[in-house]
Specification:
single chain; mainly beta; Jelly Rolls; eight-stranded antiparallel β-sheet; 1 helix; 7% helix; 46% strand
């Protein structure tokens, strides 16, 4: 057993996120395990870039209200206590609404080369505005 009493809060890198995003690693993959998990906190309007995961991603919302969008224009509005599963290879983004904070635990099962995440371009202002209008 390992009891971890403290995890440093890190500012998420600007080349992968828009706005103020902070994260605390919960689990970093250590062979033979491949699970990576982090608590990610988004300020209002903050979001990830478009990205995908080789083995998919599970997001469990712990606080606030957020949005998860996919390339086909689908958007889900998520609240504390809800879970979203993004399938392997699906390009998506996630973040807070424009008026609320949102925090989630992000979980991915990596591949032999790392966490299996492919980072892409930023979500445009128009794409974000569309998500705010259409998120169910």
């Amino acid at each position: 057993m390992e009891h971890i009493t403290k995890s440093s809060t890190l500012k998420a890198p600007a080349e992968r996120f828009a706005g103020d995003v902070h994260l605390n690693m919960i689990e970093a993959p250590t062979a033979p395990a491949r699970l990576a998990a982090a608590l990610v906190r988004f300020t209002p309007g903050a979001r990830t870039n478009w990205h995908s995961h080789a083995n998919g991603q599970t997001l469990y919302v712990t606080d606030g209200v957020g949005l998860v969008g996919t390339r086909d224009g689908s958007v889900v509005r998520v609240h504390a206590g809800q879970t979203v599963k993004c399938p392997a290879g699906e390009e998506h983004w996630h973040g807070a609404t424009d008026t609320t904070f949102m925090a989630h635990i992000a979980m991915v099962v990596g591949d032999a080369d790392g966490d299996g995440t492919t980072w892409l371009e930023p979500v445009t202002a128009d794409q974000y505005a569309h998500a705010l209008d259409t998120g169910d």
